[in-house]
Write a structure and sequence with these properties.
By secondary structure, this protein is an alpha+beta fold. It has helices at about 1-25, 65-75, 160-170, 195-200; strands at about 40-50, 55-60, 60, 75-80, 80-85, 90-95, 100-110, 115-120, 125-130, 135-140, 145-150, 155-160, 170-175, 180-185, 190-195.
Amino acid sequence: MAKQGQSANRSLDGLTEAAREAAGKAATGKGLPPVHLWNPPFCGDLDMRIASDGTWFYLGTPIGRPALVRLFSTILKREDGKHFLVTPVEKVGIKVDDAPFLAVEMAKDEDARGRLLRFRTNVDDWVACDADHRLRFEAAEDGGMVPYLHVRADLWAKVTRALYYDLVDIGEERVVDGHPKFGIASGGAFFAMADAEQMREAL
């Protein structure tokens, strides 16, 4: 076990340095490392977990440095339903309880397509909600809905409960495939949340 722990520590140190190097190179380009182009060998799982509230843990302890969390978030990748931290030379698996990001702030703007909602994640990325960065809704255990925002590639942000209520307040009814739906319009797209009649009864 000690050997495994030492290996994990070396992997974390190596990932930190490699992520800094990749982020430094990306700073002169589009801002994020091109993890979609990297296909390094799998080096095993790291004892790292992203909890459902967005907290990152390493060896069971919260990572208290937002800058480090932000750094690791830039090399996050999802393949076949699993999450990995990826550099050009290694790939390690991590556990994600729900979604890797949280959408914690929403701004309402306008563009040529009409209303445009923009969301800030817990790692300070701003994502404009449109057909390429859509909202999806899943049933919650309490009978409500949980919204998720597509951030990039196959990575999603869970929208906080407070913002969910804000979305309900600006929701509208539209006919989708012949059925009245309640949903959210943003960036020229409409994201159905539920049947309109069900939402009327719930509200």
